Automatic annotation (TrEMBL):
<dbReference type="InterPro" id="IPR004358">
    <property type="entry name" value="Sig_transdc_His_kin-like_C"/>
</dbReference>
<dbReference type="InterPro" id="IPR036097">
    <property type="entry name" value="HisK_dim/P_sf"/>
</dbReference>
<keyword id="KW-0175">Coiled coil</keyword>
<dbReference type="Pfam" id="PF08448">
    <property type="entry name" value="PAS_4"/>
</dbReference>
<dbReference type="InterPro" id="IPR001789">
    <property type="entry name" value="Sig_transdc_resp-reg_receiver"/>
</dbReference>
<feature type="domain" description="Histidine kinase">
    <location>
        <begin position="420"/>
        <end position="632"/>
    </location>
</feature>
<dbReference type="InterPro" id="IPR052162">
    <property type="entry name" value="Sensor_kinase/Photoreceptor"/>
</dbReference>
<feature type="coiled-coil region">
    <location>
        <begin position="107"/>
        <end position="168"/>
    </location>
</feature>
<dbReference type="InterPro" id="IPR036890">
    <property type="entry name" value="HATPase_C_sf"/>
</dbReference>
<dbReference type="InterPro" id="IPR003661">
    <property type="entry name" value="HisK_dim/P_dom"/>
</dbReference>
<feature type="domain" description="PAC">
    <location>
        <begin position="231"/>
        <end position="282"/>
    </location>
</feature>
<dbReference type="Pfam" id="PF00512">
    <property type="entry name" value="HisKA"/>
</dbReference>
<dbReference type="GO" id="GO:0000155">
    <property type="term" value="F:phosphorelay sensor kinase activity"/>
</dbReference>
<feature type="domain" description="Response regulatory">
    <location>
        <begin position="6"/>
        <end position="122"/>
    </location>
</feature>
<dbReference type="Pfam" id="PF00072">
    <property type="entry name" value="Response_reg"/>
</dbReference>
<dbReference type="InterPro" id="IPR000014">
    <property type="entry name" value="PAS"/>
</dbReference>
<keyword id="KW-0808">Transferase</keyword>
């Protein structure tokens, strides 16, 4: 079986077609062919089928080879076109060849047909291969051109972005060649030195800065070129508002041969940082001076905890000279307290609990401790600046404690003396009172007028003296006969006070009210006495209108501040200083009393570790304030 050959034959003669087919078979081909003899038929055949070669008669009744050539060229197909004709002149053949025919063969010389077809098919294949190569090359060129265009655009965008970054940077950026001539500067440089990039190109630092400044900058540039590595410098530059310090990162730029051709610098203004560092240094020096010269002891420590989170030891990280002076301990930094004072943890577990609590919670605490290993009393304030660390600031209060103890003993002796004196005076005073009253009862009106008046004075004096002695006994018993402090509801105490003063309240048509009152740790009986004295005074020292008394409370930090406000006669400014002293009275003749009540109030408040004071305006009323510490209820 021969080689397949797809042949489009343009011929009006069936016999001539058979001759061509026979010749092709003789040449070793198995032709698949189609005969057409019109332009329409040829166009349809070219469009719908694939052909290897076209064989055409030169002239036919309805068609010609020249028309067929034009149709083939119009289709864009590259197929061998061979004219086979019975009679064709040389001029006609040349014309056909010029029109695009590949060869022409006389019908009486068909032996040339197969070699001509094979030759033209080879040439057609060469043309197609060249066309494919050209197309491939064109596509490659187009792709390369696109990639080059894309890369160019990417580089342009990257360069634009880089330039935007450089120009919008807060740092000063510049490039100088190896001779120190500027190649470029960024916008920050332009704005600071008021010079455009185009104007500075080619200039050196000597054209811009004073010589001394330029020398320093140039020397740094040369160090970079010699070292061939990035280097960091502090450089001082003159600007409109004075000298500025910059931290400059400088590095070499290399050409393709690896030779440095420029120095790039990125400088950041650290003037404020330098000022801050200087201020910090000065502050640290002041702090160190204060730290070393402060009178209070100072210890900065790290707390150590066991696996269960319990404080077991602490290390001294820093102490001042006052620490050594007050404690007598030397060279403690870096050491554990259990190494310095053996047995301290067992003797003073509460010390470790307080320090550990402050180190973990950060809440400051203050306490006093009798530190027997050193033979001193200490007042210690503890706070934390960092978790698991604490600062202890302390003072030696041994002398104060000794003075307080001496004062306590003295007060106890005085209280005992006052109690004994008052108690011993009661019996003779009672006898005087009884007999003066008996004298008044038996002899009133039987003696002259002066005698009756003298007897009345004696009775009143004895009664007043007896009241003073009773009040003095109350005053002396406050510190010795008081009950243990316990949770006490001040609203209940207020109600008890009002009940005790019911007669005085009704008699004076007084209005006594209160805001919500807290529960505090107090001696309830003494609180009743305190409230009763203050409210009774508010009712007693009244103006013409009915008394109005108001009790209120507010919390301020670690204490309650309570107040008793009235609308009474007020207190003279000159009497305010002696208000809480024994036997001090402003209105002796007009209002009854012994002058002990407010002194008792002061003793009660002080026993509760509080303070008492008053504010007043004559004719408008008074407000008495006192404080009670906030304590945990145990």
């Amino acid at each position: 079986m021969g080689t397949l050959l797809r042949v489009l034959i343009i011929e009006d003669s069936e016999d001539d077609v058979l001759l061509v087919v026979r010749e092709l078979r003789r040449g070793g081909y198995d032709p698949v062919f189609e005969r057409v003899d019109t332009a329409e038929a040829m166009s349809e055949a070219l469009e719908k089928k694939t052909w290897d070669v076209i064989i055409s008669d030169y002239v036919m009744p309805q068609f010609s080879s020249l028309e067929a050539l034009r149709l083939l060229q119009k289709s864009g197909l590259d197929l061998p076109f061979i004219i086979v004709s019975g009679k064709i002149g040389e001029d006609t053949a040349v014309e056909a060849m010029k029109a695009g025919a590949n060869d022409y063969i006389m019908k009486d010389n068909l032996a040339r047909l197969v070699p001509a077809i094979e030759r033209e098919m080879r040439e057609a294949e060469v043309r197609r291969e060249k066309k494919r190569a050209d197309e491939k090359l064109r596509r490659a060129y187009d792709e390369l051109e696109i990639r080059v265009q894309e890369r160019t655009e990417e580089l342009a965008k990257a360069n634009e972005a880089l330039q935007a970054i450089i120009n919008n940077s807060t740092a000063v950026i510049y490039v100088k060649d190896t001779q120190g001539r500027y190649i470029m500067v960024n916008r920050r440089y332009e704005n600071l030195l008021h010079i455009k990039s185009e104007q500075i190109k080619g200039k050196t630092d000597y054209d811009i800065f004073p010589k001394e400044m330029a020398d320093a900058v140039r020397a740094n540039d040369q160090k970079v070129l010699q070292a061939r590595v990035p280097l960091e410098f502090d450089e001082v530059i003159q600007q409109d508002d004075g000298l500025h310090t910059y931290i400059a990162i400088k590095f070499p730029l290399y050409d393709p041969a690896g030779i440095p051709y420029a120095v790039c610098g990125i400088s950041t203004d650290i003037t404020e940082r330098k000022r801050t560092e200087q201020a910090l240094l000065e502050s640290e020096q002041r702090y160190r001076s204060l730290f070393e010269n402060m009178l209070h002891g100072f210890a900065y420590c790290k707390m150590l905890f066991d696996d269960r989170g319990r404080p077991v030891d602490f290390i001294y990280l820093n102490v001042n000279s006052a620490f050594e002076r007050l404690t007598g301990l030397k060279n403690v930094v870096g050491k554990k307290v259990t190494e310095i004072i053996p047995g301290i943890k067992e003797s003073y577990p509460e010390l470790f609990e307080i320090y550990g609590r402050v180190a973990l919670t950060g809440r400051p605490e203050k306490f006093e401790i009798d530190f027997k290993p050193l033979g001193i009393w200490l007042s210690i304030s503890v706070y934390s600046t960092q978790r698991e660390h604490f600062v202890a600031v302390f003072d030696n209060i041994t002398e104060r404690k000794l003075a307080e103890e001496e004062l306590r003993r003295s007060n106890a002796e005085l209280e005992q003396f006052a109690y004994i004196a008052a108690h011993d005076l009661q019996e003779p005073l009672r006898m005087i009172s009884i007999f003066t009253q008996l004298l008044a009862k038996r002899y009133k009106g039987r003696l002259d007028k002066d005698a009756d008046e003298f007897i009345t004075y004696a009775v009143d004096g004895a009664r007043h003296m007896q009241q003073m002695i009773e009040d003095l006994l109350k005053y002396s018993r406050i510190g010795t006969s008081g009950r243990q402090l316990e949770p006490s509801n001040l609203e209940d105490i207020f109600d008890q006070t009002v009940a005790n003063l019911k007669a005085a309240i009704e008699e004076n048509n007084a209005e006594v009210a209160h805001d919500p009152l807290p529960t505090v740790m107090a001696d309830a009986s003494q609180m009743v006495e305190l409230f009763q004295n203050l409210i009774d005074n508010a009712i007693k020292f009244r103006r013409e209108e009915p008394p109005q008394v108001h009790v209120s409370a507010r919390r301020e930090g670690n204490e309650w501040v309570l107040s008793v406000r009235d609308n009474g006669i007020g207190i003279s400014p000159e009497f305010m200083g002696s208000l809480f002293q024994l036997f001090q009275r402003e209105h002796v003749a007009k209002y009854p009393g012994t002058g002990v009540g407010l002194a008792i109030c002061r003793r009660i408040v002080e026993r509760h570790r509080g303070r008492i004071w008053a504010e007043s305006e004559v004719g408008k009323g008074s407000t008495f304030y006192f404080t009670i510490p906030v304590r945990k209820f145990v």
